[in-house]
Design goal:
83% helix; coiled coil; 14 helices; 378 residues; mainly alpha
Length: 378
């Protein structure tokens, strides 16, 4: 009682064992020691609860599942038995890993054999970087090659995002496990002192208010993780678009075709990384319409990126692509700023208020229990 958040916590199977252990130590430690221990534990719980590891963990788990499904679909694994096996949960971790590895091995080999190097050599041999006539003649051919290469890049980027998210989930799982350990210890102390029952009506009333406040705080904490994911992805998208624009603008001053081609391919990869990050950000926060960026503008960037290699030699097209990339970079930066400002003015403010309410009630309950626990132990 009084120490579980709105997230489900583990039961306490060791109350008797903890209590008997405390009984044997009490005579030596003194009456106040156990009460002080309760206070320290409650303060620790309050700090850790404030990070909402449980609600954030649930959100991160859902995000991992979403990314896993998308990545498998892109690799062509969505028709296999990988997802049903995970859902049933009856196979061991090793068995699940073996099934998934068999399916992904071939897909990963395809991703590794990206045609980018061949495309670069072919573009150089055909002279499409410096000759607008040759570039126009071969533009559809190179556009098809670019689409294939960019699709494989998408698979790679989503795979990297999935691994990064799994690491985030692992951190949250560890924090949540630590919080549950503290709950067990605190429950043991409370059960030892009060027998697991409320000792005053005030204690019961404050505890009920605290549970309601925790529930509100935890729901906001879950939403907080969604916005965190979206914000980090948007920031990555903005950074990549800025780097890509710098690369693209420098192409006009380059003379060596091989160097120009390499910089163009790097620019293409950066822009694609930006658009994949943007797409993932929208998936992470589907009910929020991102300001300043339109679907039409994103399609224009994708089109320019697809024809990027053969547009370099044509001055008019190069300038058009520059304008498209410049507008995208500016709006990407605006969108990122808007999201963080909106977050700080709404959800962050609401969460801080909810957390302040929880902290205040927790302190009131802690102070009250410290007083009555000290009295009953005397």
């Amino acid at each position: 009682m009084g120490c579980g958040s709105s997230m489900e916590t583990q039961t306490n199977p060791v109350v008797t064992e903890v209590s008997s252990g405390m009984q044997s130590r009490q005579n030596a430690a003194g009456v106040t020691n156990i009460v002080e221990q309760y206070v320290r534990l409650d303060e620790q719980i309050g700090k850790l609860e404030g990070t909402c590891p449980g609600p954030r963990m649930a959100t991160a788990e859902a995000w991992v599942d979403h990314l896993q499904s998308k990545h498998e679909a892109m690799l062509g694994l969505d028709g296999m038995d990988v997802a049903p096996l995970r859902e049933r949960g009856r196979a061991s971790d090793i068995e699940q890993e073996e099934v998934y590895t068999m399916g992904t091995r071939q897909g990963n080999q395809i991703v590794a054999n990206t045609p980018t190097k061949d495309l670069a050599q072919l573009a150089y041999n055909l002279g499409v970087i410096g000759d607008s006539r040759k570039a126009s003649m071969h533009e559809d051919f190179f556009a098809n090659l670019s689409e294939s290469a960019l699709y494989l890049l998408s698979i790679r980027y989503y795979g990297e995002l999935l691994e990064h998210t799994k690491q985030r989930l692992k951190t949250l799982v560890e924090s949540y496990a630590e919080l549950n350990e503290l709950y067990v210890k605190q429950d043991g102390i409370i059960a030892y002192i009060s027998g697991g029952t409320y000792m005053t009506r005030l204690e019961e009333s404050i505890d009920e208010q605290l549970e309601t406040a925790r529930d509100t705080r935890d729901k906001l904490g879950s939403a907080l993780e969604q916005w965190r994911i979206c914000g980090l992805l948007l920031r990555a998208a903005a950074n990549s678009s800025t780097q890509a624009l710098k690369q693209w603008r420098q192409l006009a001053r380059m003379i060596d075709p091989k160097q120009k081609l390499q910089w163009a391919l790097d620019c293409r990869s950066l822009l694609h990384a930006s658009m994949v990050s943007l797409e993932a950000a929208q998936l992470a926060l589907p009910h929020v319409e991102l300001k300043y960026l339109s679907h039409r503008q994103v399609l224009a960037v994708k089109h320019c990126n697809t024809y990027l290699i053969t547009d370099i030699a044509n001055k008019a097209r190069y300038e058009h692509t520059t304008r498209v990339f410049t507008s995208y970079e500016a709006n990407m930066s605006k969108t990122c700023t808007w999201l963080y400002e909106t977050f700080n003015n709404t959800l962050r403010s609401d969460f801080d208020k909810a957390e302040a309410t929880v902290s205040g009630l927790a302190k009131t309950l802690r102070d009250h229990r410290e007083e009555i626990f000290a009295t009953v132990r005397k």
